[in-house]
User: What shape does this take?
Amino acid sequence: MKELLKEKLAKQFTTVQFEFSEQVDELTVKLDKSALLNVCSFLKDEEGLKFNLCEDVTAIDWATRKNRFTVVYHIFSMENKFRLCLKVDVDESECSVESVSSIWKAANWAEREAYDMFGITFLHHPDLRRMYMSEDFEYHPLRKEFPLMGIPGTLPLPKK
Amino acid sequence: MGLESKLINDGFFTTTVDALAAWARENSVWPMPMGISCCAIEMMASGDPKYDISRFGSEVMRFTPRQCDLMIVAGTVTYKMAHVVKKIFDQMPEPKWVIAMGACTSTGGMYRSYNVVQGIDQFLPVDVYAAGCPPRPENLLNALIQIQEKIGKTRVKDFPDSPQVGFDTKQTELSLSKN
Assistant: This one.
């Protein structure tokens, strides 16, 4: 399955740079964010691949790296019982990536969560509101600069 | 507030009614099970036949705040949930008491984090704290017994919204002789 996948991707996307690696027996594909939507819809619809389940969309904050964030997609093919991890680098200056919720509906809330926690904007997302924090909250708690105990006075408590 | 606060104005066997009401309250504390996380499991266990909270007259866990007089806050209270807890607490009729069950509720516990309230006493008047993570059912029952002791000692004049008349022998005699 791994070889088939690499072959198909290379054949379909000649101009896109793919970086393959393996972690804990799971294949990881790193790609540029401009190619993300095309690659995702190919992975979902292509005969023999059929990655029809989006398990999770999340992000990593590397704090000091050149590309500060990495958006991580975990997708699964029910047909082949095969799991794949997609990684896309996002820089802080252009902190946005195309939403995949048009391809997998399950990505909708996961992207909202990533937006809430990291402040990464998912372009063309149908309903990009905060997931956990209140809507007037100004910060993104999973960013490395956010203090563990929060910023006093930003989350209101009811009066005694 | 209740029957006895009406009677206190008429000066009509107030001490006896007061003691009777306290005794009745103390032995029929109806809890509001505010089960937010894992402490709720131990709270449920304290209602089972082995620990049997009904020995203390508190088996009627009411899922509406309007019928309760003791709120057992069992679990981690986040800043978002705090508003809900407070809203439910406000709907409970006076007089009411609060047990902060477990480490999270009392101090934030192991969740030393931006989203968890570090102790519900920041927005609720807590009467008894039950220590443990989660506390065993015996521990919750002990907290209940302590609340009962507190309720037994409470008199009408102690409640914040009761008319500040108090027990007056002269008034009582007067009203009795009139009748």
User: Anything to note?
Assistant: Chain B has one domain: 30-163. The domain at 30-163 of chain B is CATH 3.40.50.12280 (Rossmann fold). The first helix of chain B runs from residue 3 to 10.
